[in-house]
Q: What sequence folds into this?
């Protein structure tokens, strides 16, 4: 008696959803999967497929990538959002192989290149069934999906980081450089660029990446700038360069008034293009950067207006005294020339200029009866006059954005040999910005007319500065001053010449300089 032949149970039918806008291919897919023991549902568009996956679960979704309306990649993202354990297989033609690779990164199980045969479908089903048995009927979250979740988490962190940067008081250029670094690292671009246009129409850019690629990206961006700006910052455009394989995406950074910017990232095609969620991230980064930049610009406007107001007070004090009218303005110009000669950065030159403009701010608190006194001051009155550096620094102390300028205000009467006031600082303990303002202040004082003496000629005044090297003045600063062309000093003196005729006595304001 022969042994009975064991009965091999038929494989459990898989619930398969096939999606393709090509009717012939869709019929083939339905027939092929049905013939291999599957329960098949079909959709001619991704939108129709979305309705089906919302209504019922599937063991496998097979979809063409390129379709009218939503694409297969969009459907992939939707499936992973609603049924993350469901394998998704993408169908691609030869031109779309790159998209299929992106799909794998994005969580696709596999892809079928056209044309494919029933045998390839059978092999696919065998792998699906084997994996389901291996994983006890549940396909685990693919590595691509894990990567996406991690990428989204990093994206949220970058958004918060951009917002935090806006609160740190950075200069606009430093803020943009840091944002570009964060965005480039988050989206792993081969080249990154931020192009900003200010309210006057002038452009400046921050850039990262390989120089040749950055140059190509800048050329593409400049060609498409008006098109990008027309979107108003609510869309993200893809820049294309048919001559060379490069994928670039760009988003507008809306500004204040006529100011505007664009952030643009690029990848070599060999590196891989940008996934849909990465595109969304870039748009989010641009919008968050826009809000932060608007705050920075508004803050800078407020700070500039505040400095202008304080400067107006200083000018108002000096305008009351014909001997000192224009003193702070001239000191600011001399000090800026010294700073440039020393090779300071543009930012530090501006700090020196503002510090010099505000150096006599403390005299706002001194009574006019003392400031305007024509006779020699008493020791007590002169002590009040000597308090003006500390008083000026105290006025500016709450304005943290002027902390470096405050050093010039407090210490512009210090001497390099330590015999100055208010703190008796010596040498390099005196802040550099104050050492520069000291030379400019003294030079203007001795080249301006006073009731008790006429102004020294510029050559003689330069000799006085030279004699003060190492005692009154920092030798390096003084030598930088002496390198300024005489014609430049004459220009400053001529443009801000003060009127000194008809006065009697020596006002205290003049005695203090």
A:
């Amino acid at each position: 008696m022969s042994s009975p032949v064991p009965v091999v149970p038929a494989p459990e039918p898989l619930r398969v959803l096939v999606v393709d806008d090509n009717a012939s291919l869709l019929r083939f897919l339905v027939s092929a999967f049905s013939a291999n023991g599957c329960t098949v549902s079909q959709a001619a568009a991704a939108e129709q497929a979305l309705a089906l996956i919302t209504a019922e679960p599937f063991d496998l979704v097979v979809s063409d990538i390129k379709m009218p309306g939503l694409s297969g990649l969009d459907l992939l993202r939707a499936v992973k959002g609603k049924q993350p354990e469901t394998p998704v297989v993408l169908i691609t033609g030869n031109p779309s192989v790159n998209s299929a690779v992106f799909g794998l990164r994005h969580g696709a199980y596999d892809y079928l290149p056209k044309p494919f045969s029933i045998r390839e479908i059978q092999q696919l089903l065998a792998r699906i069934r084997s994996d389901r048995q291996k994983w006890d009927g549940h396909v685990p979250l693919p590595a691509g999906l894990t990567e996406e979740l991690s990428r989204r988490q990093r994206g949220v962190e970058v958004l918060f980081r951009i917002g935090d940067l806006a609160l740190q008081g950075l200069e606009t250029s430093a803020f943009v450089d840091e944002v570009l670094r964060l965005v480039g690292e988050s989206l792993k671009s081969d080249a990154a660029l931020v192009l900003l246009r200010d309210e006057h129409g002038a452009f400046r850019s921050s850039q990262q990446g390989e120089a040749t690629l950055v140059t190509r990206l800048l050329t593409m961006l400049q060609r498409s700038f008006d098109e990008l700006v027309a979107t108003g910052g609510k869309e993200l455009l893809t820049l294309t360069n048919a001559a060379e394989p490069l994928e670039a995406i760009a988003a507008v950074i809306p500004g204040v008034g006529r100011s505007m910017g664009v952030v643009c990232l690029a990848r070599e095609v060999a590196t891989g293009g940008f996934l849909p969620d990465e595109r969304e991230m870039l748009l989010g980064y641009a919008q968050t950067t826009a809000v932060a930049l608007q705050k920075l610009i508004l803050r800078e406007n407020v700070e500039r207006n505040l400095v202008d107001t304080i400067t107006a007070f200083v000018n108002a004090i000096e305008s009351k005294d014909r001997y000192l009218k224009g003193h702070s303005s001239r000191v600011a110009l001399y000090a800026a020339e010294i700073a440039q000669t020393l090779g300071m950065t543009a930012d530090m030159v501006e700090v020196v200029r503002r510090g010099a403009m505000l150096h006599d701010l403390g005299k706002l608190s001194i009574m006019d009866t003392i400031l305007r006194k024509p006779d020699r001051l008493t020791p007590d009155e002169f002590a009040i006059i000597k308090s003006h550096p500390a008083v000026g620094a105290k006025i500016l102390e709450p304005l943290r954005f002027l902390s470096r300028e405050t050093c010039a205000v407090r210490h512009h009467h210090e001497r390099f040999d330590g015999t100055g006031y208010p703190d008796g600082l010596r040498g390099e303990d005196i802040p550099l910005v104050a050492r520069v303002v000291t030379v400019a202040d003294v030079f203007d004082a001795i080249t301006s007319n006073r009731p008790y003496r006429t102004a020294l000629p510029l050559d003689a005044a330069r000799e006085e500065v030279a004699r003060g090297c190492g005692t009154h003045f920092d030798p390096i600063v003084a030598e930088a001053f002496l390198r300024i062309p005489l014609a430049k000093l004459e220009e400053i003196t001529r443009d801000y010449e003060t009127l000194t005729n008809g006065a009697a006595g020596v006002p205290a304001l003049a005695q203090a300089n």
User: Anything to note?
Assistant: The first strand starts at residue 14 and ends at 19. Residues 192 and 265 are 5 Å apart (CA to CA).
